[in-house]
Amino acid sequence: MTVTKTKTFGPKASMEKLLSVCGVVRRLFTRAELARTIHIGVIGFVAGFLLLVISGQLKTMAGEIVAIWIVDGYLLGHTLVLRRRHKPIFLPGSSMGMLIANLLGNETLYVALSFTLAGIVETCCAALILPGVKTARDLVEPTALLRFVLGACIVAPILSGVVAALLLEGIFTSHPFSSFSNWVISDSLGILIFTPVTLVMLSGEWRSLLNCGSRAKSISLLAMVVAVTVLVFSQTSYPSLYWVLPPLALLAFHAELSTVLVGTLLFIAISVPLTVRGTGPLWLFSFPSMQDRVLALQLFTVAALSTVLPITVLQTQRNALLALLADGHRRFRQLTEHSEEIVMQLSAEGLLQYVSPRATSVLGYQPQILLRRQILDFVHEDDRHQLKSTITKASASSADESVQYRLRRADNTFIWVRSFLAAMPADVSDEQTTLAFTVRDIDTYVLSEQRRSAEEQRLNDLAFVDSLTGLRNRRYLDSKLNELLQSLSVDADVRHLAVLFADIDYFKTYNDRYGHQAGDECLRKVGKCIEATIRDADILARYGGEEFVVVLDDFRLEQSVDTAERIRAAVEALALEHEGNPLGVVTLSIGVAQSPLGQPADTIDLFEKADSALYMAKRLGRNRVGAMQDA
């Protein structure tokens, strides 16, 4: 027997392939994450090492007095932009770099560890105080800025100074860092300046400096700061220290936060070396030592920043608000220009204050032609009162109003439009209201509705009109008579209803002698004669065959009989030839029935009475009126 292996296909094989792919992805992800972790640790190590070496060189140049401490400000900014899982990698790496740099600076292991621990405590404390800050723009928010200044720039340096003082007490009494004030101020300046700068660089906000619109202005303002700082600190003849404040303030008013920080860095980079070398306005004053002179320069820098940064924050918020307003205006323009409706702004008096470009395609007017014109001047005269009252109502209340009317186009034709009106404040400090006013073209809809209504009316008329005579038919008569009887039951002691039942005498004989076409023409002529004799308010209908019914509303029996007599006489006066009638002309017999006084009546009862009265008139010789009323 030979056994052969075959490949299997199905759910089990698919699951195995999926698990295999997931394993490969997991291994790749683990390797990528490991490489990323190592990369962040290396960056922390290099940053801590290099920045500590640079800071050490600065304090050496200044005669063992450091004016600004760079390391902790940068480490804080870098820590803030990192993800949470990467911060525990970055901080130990930077600590190792600072420790090695301190050891290379001829410090003992204990001193190096003390300095490194104090710096890491400062960075961690400041980072905990600033949760959620990822960019310099986040940093200038009011709450974040308060935490940054009070917590990161004051509390964290003080805590770091306390840790260093406790760890190094009795070891280096003559070391410059034993000066607690110098430690706190230099660290505060470093955090105050280099943390925002680091956020600007690492978050990508620095790209705003390359904008063509602000590049030339920023460079000019920075050049002014550099020139004034060089002039002030390169001479010792005049006490002109405060002349550097106006350029910094001007920079704060007209530049972004990143540019202001660069200007402050340039000021420090110029003022500190020149002061240490023996020039500048601070040499006009006597200080016990260089440390005190540098401390005075530090305090002046803090005072300058406390003036410049609030201005920068306010300007940043103002620029953000202006950008938001500009964006809102742009969006509004786009919406109004692409909307099917014309968007307008009306004063309470109906003057057009704004008209969107849509007016050109809908009405044929350029928007500027309509400004400061009365909207009522373009409204059909039959609709002006309605629109005026709607404007008044909308101005006096906060409710939205709508109105339909006709508006004149530029070619003097009118179109149907619908407008929606809503009151809105004209100004923040103005109690007078204006109206948000929209105009929607509904001409096609209204005309189609009018045509539909006309068609419905025509169909209704066909349903209720006798095709032969053009009078109302029996269906219409029954519905109308029921309505009148229902209203009569409410007011029966005042109003009376009468039914006149008219029949052409010997009409069958007329048809036999003259033919059906002549009979139809006779019916039409008799119907027109009856219609011309009664009032417009009375109801006339062809009941069927040669019978006609007239309904008289609010008529007493005597008036009804008189009306019936006039109808009979008018038809006889037509003198329509009828050889089958003893009189030789077409005549009518009419029965009159009156609704009972104070009693309910119905259609059947009233018609039976009228028919009985008609029968009585025919029995008495035709061409006469018969009347019947209940007692």
Description:
This protein has 631 residues and is an alpha+beta fold. It folds into four domains: 169 residues; 132 residues, no CATH class; 107 residues, 2-Layer Sandwich (Beta-Lactamase); 164 residues, Alpha-Beta Plaits. It is 60% helix and 12% strand. The chain has 20 helices and ten strands. The strands form two sheets. The protein has a five-stranded antiparallel sheet. A hairpin with a 4-residue loop joins strand 1 and strand 2. The N terminus is likely disordered.
Essential attributes:
631 residues, alpha+beta, Beta-Lactamase, 4 domains, five-stranded antiparallel β-sheet, five-stranded mixed β-sheet, 10 strands, rod-shaped
SSE topology:
Blueprint lengths: L10 H51 L8 H12 L5 H18 L4 H21 L6 H4 L2 H27 L11 H24 L8 H22 L11 H10 L2 H20 L13 H49 L3 E6 L4 E4 L2 H6 L3 H4 L13 H13 L4 E8 L5 E14 L2 E12 L1 H22 L9 H17 L6 E8 L2 H8 L1 H18 L5 E6 L2 E7 L3 H18 L13 E7 L8 H17 L5 E4 L3
Parallel strand pairs: 9-10
Antiparallel strand pairs: 1-2, 1-5, 3-4, 4-5, 6-8, 6-9, 7-8
Give a nutshell description of this structure:
The protein is an alpha+beta fold. Helices cover 60% and strands 12% of the residues. The protein folds into four domains: 35-203; 207-338, no CATH class; 341-447, Beta-Lactamase; 465-628, Alpha-Beta Plaits.
